[in-house]
Specification:
- 2 copies of one chain form a homodimer.
- Chain A is mainly alpha-helical and 205 residues long.
- The first copy, chain A, folds into 2 domains: 57 residues, Arc Repressor Mutant, subunit A (Orthogonal Bundle); 139 residues, Orthogonal Bundle (Tetracycline Repressor, domain 2), CATH 1.10.357.
- The first copy, chain A, has 9 helices and no strands.
- The N and C termini of chain A lie far apart (64 Å).
- The interface between A and B is large, with 42 and 42 residues.
- The first copy, chain A, binds a DNA duplex (30 and 30 nucleotides) through α1 and α3.
- Chains A, B: One of its GO terms (molecular function) is DNA binding.
- Chains A, B: InterPro entries: Homeodomain-like_sf, HTH_TetR, Tet_transcr_reg_TetR-rel_C_sf.
- Chains A, B: Keywords: DNA-binding, Transcription, Transcription regulation.
DNA sequence: CGTTAACTGAACAGACCTGTACAGTTTAGC
DNA sequence: GCTAAACTGTACAGGTCTGTTCAGTTAACG
């Protein structure tokens, strides 16, 4: 009945304000951190009334949560694009490293500052539920690597598990160092180290 | 003339307030982040007048800087203690991993949340000078590892360099994941991976 | 055209932020 | 005891913070 009306109205009308808020929040939250970025700054830069923000998000914490979810989805989209170019499981693992490099490259113009998800977790207290979102994101990354390694090393599951953790440590460590230095060269080094590990694992069964 | 007087007064009298401020700031900054922790919270918990804070530190930013310097010195002290137990260069490298585990263990009761230095860097904007303090700290850690590896692999300097970077990525990556999970088991895994790498490098020259 | 939902701008509440000012108290060394 | 330094408590200035309220506007729909 009013399904198409409400649905169309929501799709055609609610989007602009919500979308502009998410785009602006993404830029500011990443560049300056979530605690240091005020609501007033976001609505002014987005050109949106404060009432519209609180019509779309019940609180700043929910906006932060939406930001984290968007970053996770964005990461997955970049990863899937990289995965399409991958020939086999070895290249699929390296696609994860390339995805991290893509993230660094995308943030370069505004000032690369490391992983946006991890940075948010770093400024939230220990029990905050938003930290769990970040924890699960990193677990997803490791699980994706593991999936490819199980194809690469079908007869050696526990070696695949250890290698997946090893590679995910390399990824996160290189990302942290790269963020401090403001460029992605550390991620390129990590990719080189990863290829050596993959070759070593494939060579000597 | 007034050197002994002023010196003694500074040692006997200025310390208490400054020290209590640093101890309290360390606890709060680590647990809740520097931006989310207000000056009033710190002075109340330290039992110190606001005037005393601004007599010892010219601004909150300087207190944050003192916090970072203290964490760096604390790390070095823990590392030196671990290094004394190390038999050779191989064990010296592992002493760095043990130092990270010590940090995680020390923060366990209040709520382990990853590397305190890296967490501060994560909530500061790109150009902030405090980020350089953290960057240099991490470069120091890698340089210490490199020094031990140059002893372990005296004839292969470029392999030592690549391995030092590899091990430092492992350290930081495991620390980040451990912080998200709230316990140090990931650091133990990283240490195991490090021993395998060290054995591999020593075995096949 | 009239309904409905999204949106706007502005004012407001109440709290918290950093940093300063000031008058007075405690403590150490002479 | 006297001086000088560190320290205390309180009040204040001038912002900024999140979140709410409200009256009025815009735009898409049947």
């Amino acid at each position: 009945m009013n399904e198409s009306k409400t649905g169309a109205a929501a799709a055609g009308r609610r989007r602009p304000a919500r979308e502009r808020l998410l785009v602006t929040a993404a830029r500011r939250f990443y560049a300056e951190g979530v605690t240091a970025t005020g609501i007033d700054t976001i609505i002014a830069e987005a050109g949106v009334a404060k009432t519209s923000l609180y019509n779309n998000f019940s609180s700043k914490a929910e906006l932060v949560r939406a930001y984290l979810d968007a970053r996770h989805e964005e990461w997955l989209a970049t990863y899937r694009a990289r995965l399409e170019e991958a020939a086999g499981p070895r290249e699929a693992v390296l696609a994860v490293f390339d995805t991290y490099a893509d993230c660094a490259e995308a943030a370069r113009e505004t000032g690369f500052r490391g992983c946006g998800l991890l940075n948010v977790a770093a400024e939230l207290p220990a029990g905050d539920t938003a930290r769990d979102v970040v924890r699960r994101h990193k677990e997803t990354v490791e699980a994706l690597i593991l999936g490819h390694l199980e194809q690469l090393l079908p007869e050696r599951p526990e070696e695949a598990g250890a290698l997946a953790e090893h590679l995910s440590f390399l990824l996160e460590g290189a990302m942290a160092r790269a963020g401090l230095e403001g460029d992605g060269s550390r991620l390129a080094h990590a990719r080189t180290l990863a290829t050596a590990l993959l070759d070593g694992a494939a060579d000597k069964p």
